[in-house]
Each structure stands twice: as C-alpha cells, then as structure tokens.
Amino acid sequence: MDAADAKEKAALLKKNAINAQDILNKLSDRKPYVIIFLLDCCRQYFLRNTDLNARALNANESRSVGLTPMHKAGSLVAFACTPGTLVDDKPEEQNSLFMEHLVKHLATPNEDIANVLRDVTNGVMDDSDSKQIPFINVQLRHKNIYLYEQADGKNNSFRWSETKVTIRRVSSTHCMNT
C-alpha cells in the first residue's frame, strides 16, 4: 500500500469509525447500574500516524493491529479477541465465531453475565483451536448480573427485562479505539 492509499484509508476510517472508548465514557457519565459492552471487532486499524502502518504484520515487529484494552468502573467489556490480535471474520458466514457463541449463550437463564461470557470464551477457543481468545475485562461493582430473570423470583439481581437497552450492530471495519 502506498502512502496516498494509506492516508486515504486513514481519512476514511476517521470519518466513519466509532470511537468505542468515547461511547464507554459517555455511558459511564450517565451513572448506570451496569454497563455491558460487547465488541465483536479486533481487526487491523489504521492509525492517524500512517508511518506506523508501514510496519509489516510480522510477529517480530511492532504493529498497529487489534484494539487497545478498555475499562471503566462498573462495566464489563468483552472483545472478540485479546488486545493487539486479529481474528478471521469469516465473511462467508452470517456471524463471526465470537458472535455465534454470544448468540448461543446470552440466552442462558439464571446465569451471571461473567459466567455466560466464560462459556462464550470456551466455545470460541474450542472452535478456533485456541487461535482466537476473547478478552473480557470485568470491573462490575454488583453481583448477580443476569440477562434473564431468575425463576425463583429473587429481588437481588439486575433485571434485564426492566431496562431500556439500545443495541446497535456496527461493522468491524467501523470500530476503533485509539
């Protein structure tokens, strides 16, 4: 890729990308009970400094790949893979490997979200022969965060059904955090 192409891609990314850390900060500013932030994006991105992008994608060299870790008190942030790594999106499939396991496990009743994401991690690792390892940063301040109400009617847990949630699917090419 020549310098003009790299600059064009960087400009396009800046125009179209979503800064995930900014979104996490804005959500946190609203002081919610909990933030669950699931990011199915760990792809190569193009930094504002295009000279850094000229480095080869070689394990022995510095590279500008993947997303940097994110954190905020009271949140759970899950990435499709560990920071600084890439995943195969499998464009021929409807869902990525991470999304496939999220869809499979998020509907698990009576299970804390951290445990559900452990099942997602195990499924992704098993299906990828440990080539893809989801990264989960848990800084939750409350216990018993269930996405589905407990059958016994206990009142001590977060109730997904009582919340107003906005879910937006974003293409992996439009997700960044620098």
CATH topology, anyone?
Alpha-Beta Plaits
User: Count of helices?
Assistant: 5
Order of helices and strands: HEHEHEHHEEEE
Poorly predicted runs: 48-64, 164-178
How many domain modules?
1
Shape: globular
On the 0 to 100 scale, the average pLDDT is 75
Instruction: Summarize the amount of helix as a percent range.
Output: 25-40%
> What is the CATH architecture assignment?
2-Layer Sandwich
Order of strands across the biggest sheet? 2-3-4
- The gyration radius over C-alpha positions equals 18 Å
Q: How far apart lie the N and C ends?
A: 22 Å
Strand content: 5-15%
Give the total of beta strands. 7
Just give the CATH class. Answer: Alpha Beta
